[in-house]
């Protein structure tokens, strides 16, 4: 037994055992890769931005801001002037409407009143002038006529103060006006001009310059 052991030891000494490496070496786990970032690019970009800002002219910025403010002022001024003009137009329109309402508020009352004025005027024309001027004229009739005439004058004067006026086209031989007159009949009259109102059948009335009732007239027509 001892001899075998010595023999093996001598053989190993004479022929050392070569260590055989495997064909495929085990893959070792690689260390994680580390990335390195540089601060050079952001620093350069920042410097470029600062340089661009430094190149901007402060006076140009101020001029741009002033132009913007000037435009805003012009717009606000235009809006203000328009508002003032609209307000003044509204005032004028309201004033005209109020005045028109005042002027023609009595229109219906005036229409009813002219009938009474017509009756009073008709009563004055029923008495012939010769009966009032003759020596044997009735004194009571003369006094009554004078009283009615005075009442008619006072009434017409009072109505005129409130814008109601009576007009008689035949007194002034006025030309026929379709806006003021209503032609009841036409007749030839060689001694008068064609188209003249020679007879008034019913007197007309104006209320503050507006025709309340047209005058009914006879018109000359020679042609």
Mean pLDDT across every amino acid position: 80
| Number of separate helices | 6
Instruction: Identify the overall geometry.
Output: rod-shaped
Oligomer: single chain
Beta-strand segment tally: 6
Terminal-residue CA separation: 182 Å
**CATH topology category name of the domain at 107-220:** Nucleotide Exchange Factor Grpe, Chain A, domain 2
Q: For the record, what CATH class of the domain at 107-220 applies?
A: Mainly Beta
The radius of gyration over CA amounts to 61 Å
Describe it.
This protein has helices at residues 2-14, 40-55, 58-103, 107-125, 129-133, 139-161; strands at 164-167, 181-187, 197-202, 204-207, 210-213, 215-220. The chain has 223 residues and is of the alpha+beta class. The chain has a domain at 107-220: Nucleotide Exchange Factor Grpe, Chain A, domain 2, CATH 2.30.22. The protein has a three-stranded antiparallel sheet. Strands 2-6-3 form a three-stranded mixed sheet, with no helix packed on it. The model is unreliable at 20-25 (pLDDT under 50). Belongs to the GrpE family. Essential component of the PAM complex, a complex required for the translocation of transit peptide-containing proteins from the inner membrane into the mitochondrial matrix in an ATP-dependent manner. GO terms for molecular function: adenyl-nucleotide exchange factor activity; protein homodimerization activity; protein-folding chaperone binding; unfolded protein binding. One of its GO terms (cellular component) is PAM complex, Tim23 associated import motor.
């Amino acid at each position: 037994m001892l001899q075998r052991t010595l023999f093996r030891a001598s053989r190993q000494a004479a022929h050392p055992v070569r260590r055989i490496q495997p064909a495929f070496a085990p893959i070792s786990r690689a260390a994680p890769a580390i990335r390195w970032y540089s601060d050079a690019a952001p620093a350069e970009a920042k410097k470029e931005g600062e340089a661009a800002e430094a190149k901007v002219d402060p006076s140009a910025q101020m001029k741009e801001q002033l132009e913007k403010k000037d435009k805003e002022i012009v717009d606000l001024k235009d809006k203000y002037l328009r508002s003032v003009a609209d307000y003044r137009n509204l005032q004028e329109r309201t004033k005209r409407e109020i005045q028109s309402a005042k002027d023609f508020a009595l229109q219906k009352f005036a229409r009813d009143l002219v009938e009474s004025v017509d009756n009073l005027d008709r009563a004055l024309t029923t008495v012939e002038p010769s009966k009032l001027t003759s020596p044997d004229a009735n004194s009571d009739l003369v006094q009554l006529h004078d009283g009615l005439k005075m009442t008619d004058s006072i009434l017409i004067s009072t109505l005129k103060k409130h814008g109601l006026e009576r007009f008689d086209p035949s007194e002034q031989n006025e030309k026929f006006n379709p806006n003021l007159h209503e032609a009841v009949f036409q007749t030839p009259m060689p001694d008068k001009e064609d188209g003249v109102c020679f007879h008034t059948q019913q007197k007309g009335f104006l209320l503050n310059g507006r025709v309340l009732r047209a005058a009914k007239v006879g018109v000359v027509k020679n042609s």
